[in-house]
Design a protein that fits this description.
Blueprint lengths: L1 H19 L6 E12 L3 E12 L4 E14 L4 E12 L5 E16 L2 E14 L4 E14 L6 E12 L5 E15 L2 E14 L2 E15 L1
Parallel strand pairs: 1-11
Antiparallel strand pairs: 1-2, 2-3, 3-4, 4-5, 5-6, 6-7, 7-8, 8-9, 9-10, 10-11
Length: 214
């Protein structure tokens, strides 16, 4: 497990280094609140997120999510959710998304490796159009015993299922901070690469989140 995690973290670090070779053009923030209610194996979840751009001068988008899932065992879970998006940076466009995801997590002592596959079906009522996106996310993290910090590296790749084109990739470095009682904070830096009219654009993102599991 340790050898696998070291290999994965090396891949994530190399990906981040390759991303940093791109020309960056913007600074944004992602801030979120997420709630998860456990009922044993089943769980319910809700999330509200705001994203800024244009050097933090404007709102790129915001969305609200609600859904539920099931822990099939100690390493596999799946969930289904609905997301409502409003995107001022694209003419105040509205999107409705149905999202299905499966997450595999392997743990050994303080080390954890998680692979998430997510499918998004998005509907744009303004254009009366649908889009299909596949997201693959790899996350490696380490939590020392009796520490409130859980540092992590994470990489996520988006592709358009209809044509197979690359959409975006996200390169994270961050840490979760446990506050006790199911409360935690999440702070991260993320380098965001995305397709912009056939060209690769980039954005530095500073993120902050509050999570409550109860």
């Amino acid at each position: 497990m340790k050898k696998v995690l070291v290999t994965v973290l090396s891949i994530l670090a190399i990906s981040a280094a390759q991303a940093s070779a791109q020309t960056s053009s913007d600074l944004g923030t992602w801030s979120s609140i997420q709630l998860v209610k456990s009922f044993g194996a089943p769980y319910a979840m809700a999330r509200l997120e705001h994203r800024s751009f244009d050097n933090v001068r404007g709102t790129e988008c915001w969305f609200a999510m609600a859904g539920g899932g099931y822990n099939f065992n100690n390493w596999l879970k799946g969930d289904l959710s609905y997301e409502y998006w409003r995107i001022p940076s694209a003419g105040d466009m509205v999107q409705h998304k149905a999202v299905l995801s499966l997450t595999e997590t392997f743990k050994r002592e303080g080390l954890a490796l998680a692979l998430r596959e997510k499918y998004e079906l998005a509907y744009n009522p303004g254009a009366d159009s649908f889009s299909h996106t596949l997201r693959t996310r790899l996350r490696g993290q380490y939590k020392a015993q009796d520490s409130i910090f859980t540092p992590y590296l994470m990489y996520e790749f988006f592709s358009n299922i209809s044509n197979g084109n690359w959409v975006r990739s996200l390169h994270y470095a961050g840490t979760e901070i446990s506050l006790g009682g199911g409360h935690s904070l999440d702070f991260f830096y993320m380098y965001h690469l995305y397709d912009k009219g056939g060209l690769t654009a980039a954005c530095h993102v500073l993120g902050a989140g509050y999570n409550f599991v109860f």
